[in-house]
Amino acid sequence: MRKDKDLTIELRLQGLTYSQISEKLGIPKSTLSFWLKNIKLGRKATSKISKHIHSTKIVKLIERNKKKTEIARKKNEAIRKLGKKEAKIFFKDPLFVTGLALYWGEGYKKGAEGSKWKSIDFANSDPVMIKVIIKFFFKYLPIKKTDVKVQIMLHNPDDNEQSIKFWKGVTGLKEENFIKTSYVISKSSKKKITTHLPYGTVHIRINNVNLFFKLIGWIDFLKETM
User: Fold this and answer.
1) Digit-coded pLDDT (tens) for 19-64
2) Which one, of 102, 121, 83, 94, lies nearest residue 216 by Cα?
3) Tens digits of residue pLDDT in 76-109
4) Residue 58 contacts by C-beta under 8 Å, 6 or more apart in sequence?
5) Is the Cβ–Cβ distance between 199 and 178 less than 8 Å?
6) Strands (E), the chain
């Protein structure tokens, strides 16, 4: 026993953690804690132990994140498959088919291909398209008006007030649904825009991962009907 204790102390002074010593010698950590409680470590050993503990924490964090990512991937895939089956129920409604086709053409889909951001986002400058997609979203997605965010993309900051007023009328949404306007400046024209859309381009966003994958599942069904 004395030999084991002496070896334990030697390994600790070399900068090994309790876990490393326990694994190496087969001695319980409770015993190590009792044997080593009064051992004073030098700066080099302390630094080595700290680095190992930090490294171990990082490895465990990476493993946890990988598990969470895989769980999320399986969940999203299941929602997508369910959405694909569900689409058949709604397919006789012209609004469903039209709205789905519009989103397939103009909506954000990269989140289903591995991109980190996974949210519903439809962008266009055509007020009729925006009206249709709004009707589609509210009829087929379990959302409230407060779930919808609108962002206007403009070239000229002077157009902001009239643009908000215009898109409020088109969408039927309130000013609190509108987030900060984004201004796009053309580098090629050296910030001198000669022609631009008077009301800009508008993004209709719903930040809900589950609904995003439901919508992607609907598109999967639409593709199969082509």
Assistant:
1) 888 887 888 888 878 887 777 888 887 888 888 788 777 777 778 8
2) 83
3) 999 999 999 999 999 999 999 999 999 999 999 9
4) none
5) no
6) 120-124, 148-154, 182-183, 201-206
Burial 80-91 (b: 16+ CB within 10 A, else e): beebbeebeebe
Distance, in Å, from the CA atom of 121 to the CA atom of 130, rounded to the nearest integer, reads 12
CA 150 from chain center: how many Å? 19
Whole-number Å distance between alpha carbons of 22 and 24: 5
Element (DSSP H or E) covering residue 220: helix 209-225
Burial class (CB in 10 A: 0-12, 13-18, 19+), 176: exposed
Structure token digits, residue 115: 């991109």
pTM: 0.71
Residue with structure tokens 């007030």?
Answer: 161
Residue 192 backbone phi and psi in degrees, to 5: -105, 100
Point out which residues pair with 153 in neighbouring strands. Answer: 182, 201
Cβ distance 179 to 149 under 8 Å? yes
Q: Report how far residue 79's alpha carbon sits from residue 215's, in angstroms, rounded to the nearest whole number.
A: 9
Helices (H) and strands (E) in the chain, counts: 8, 4
